[in-house]
Amino acid sequence: DIALDRAKSSCSARPVWFDEGMERALIVHSEIEQGIRYGLEHAHFIPYFEPQVELLTGEIVGFEVLARWDHPLSGLIEPDRFIPVAEEHGLIGRLSEQVILAALIQAANWDPAIKLSVNISPSQLTDSWLAQRIVRLLAEAGFPAERLVVEITESSLFADLDLARTIVTSLKNQGIRLALDDFGTGFSSLAHLRSLPFDVIKIDRSFVSKLVDDPESAAIVRAVTTLAEAIRVPVTVEGIEDAATHAAVAGFGCAVGQGWYFGKPMSGDQATALLRSRHSVPTPTVSARRSG
Ligand code: C2E
Ligand code: MG
Ligand code: MG
Ligand code: MG
């Protein structure tokens, strides 16, 4: 049987299909999954807060909430290490809710002008109860819906655009704002911009970090800002790391920015202290762009 022979020979031509590295990776993976379940039970997933500032004044206008795993043995673990595993095992909903509720409670007594932006994974946008869940968290924390921004990425819209649209509409009906995260990294961005009621467009860090030395990245950021202005949606710029980038994006007319230049993600207590002291974050230096 020729087909069978061919199958056999193609099989034997492959390398050993379960090597030590892969086995190790699987063990680590399931250890992380078990760890996440344990961490969820013990409320080890906590919010960190990254300041968002008005670019012209340096005034803090909000914080993005970023999950951290406060691991009893390993210390703080960043989301890249656990969010994909949580997504794969259907735990991302519980995890996000734990982080969001703690963030809302922390921020409930902050200046009412301060908004909170939270991240929603693609798989959460296939949960038809998402809006109700978020509304329940808001009620539990006593946090007004108008101060909450929900960030979704374009890839969230692929699975089921109609369901996504339904969920987004119920969020909006509650007064919750909607941001399109990591703009520029997905597909058919312009179509999505028109079909869903976004209140903010977040320009992805990948364009921003190279902006000062790379004219094409600068052109993209400038063009997106102009486009957003035309449809009356303000932009938030991610990943501002230095004064030159701050000056450049402020010059393009971008309204709000975030990044390590203004402040790295910090604990809830640190954010509370920062707001209390309001020691100003940097304002743009005039013509900081390098000449040649
Ligand atoms: P994101 O929403 O695009 O968040 C921005 C990421 O960029 C954060 O990383 C932030 O720390 C980092 N960042 C901000 N400013 C700078 C900068 O100036 N320079 C550099 N090099 N990096 C900067 P983080 O905290 O590691 O989060 C990674 C991603 O994990 C987030 O990307 C978000 O998609 C996801 N994520 C975080 N928390 C949650 C959560 O509670 N639920 C869900 N579903 N996803 C979350
Ligand atoms: Mg990080
Ligand atoms: Mg985000
Ligand atoms: Mg982002």
Question: Given the structure, what is the number of helices?
Answer: 11
Radius of gyration (Å): 22 Å
Structural class: alpha/beta
Please list the strands of the largest sheet in the order they lie side by side. 1-2-4-5-6-7-8-9
Q: How can the largest sheet be summarized?
A: 8 strands, mixed, barrel
Helix content: 40-55%
Q: What distance separates the N and C termini? A: 69 Å
What integer is the average pLDDT? 88
Question: What is the β-strand count?
Answer: 9
Say which molecules are bound, naming each kind only once: ligand C2E, magnesium ion
- Unreliable segments of 5+ consecutive residues: 7-14, 286-292
DSSP strand (E) fraction? 15-25%
String of helices and strands: HHEEEHHEHEHEHEHHEHEH
Give the CA-based shape.
globular
Keywords: Membrane, Transmembrane, Transmembrane helix
Domain EAL: 29-279
Protein name: EAL domain-containing protein
3D architecture notes:
This is EAL domain-containing protein. Residues 29-279 form the EAL domain. The protein contains eleven helices and nine strands. Helix 4 runs parallel beside helix 5 and helix 5 (130-141) runs parallel beside helix 6. Residues 7-14 and 286-292 have low confidence and may be disordered. 45% of the residues lie in helices and 18% in strands. Strands 1-2-4-5-6-7-8-9 form an eight-stranded mixed β-barrel, surrounded by four helices. It has 292 residues and is an alpha/beta fold. Strand 8 (235-237), helix 10 and strand 9 (256-258) form a beta-alpha-beta unit. The chain has helices at 2-13, 20-41, 79-88, 92-107, 130-141, 161-173, 189-195, 205-208, 215-230, 243-252, 268-277, and strands at residues 45-54, 60-71, 75-77, 115-119, 148-153, 177-183, 200-203, 235-237, 256-258. The longest helix is centred in the N-terminal third of the chain and has 22 residues, at 20-41. The structure holds ligand C2E and magnesium ion (3 copies).
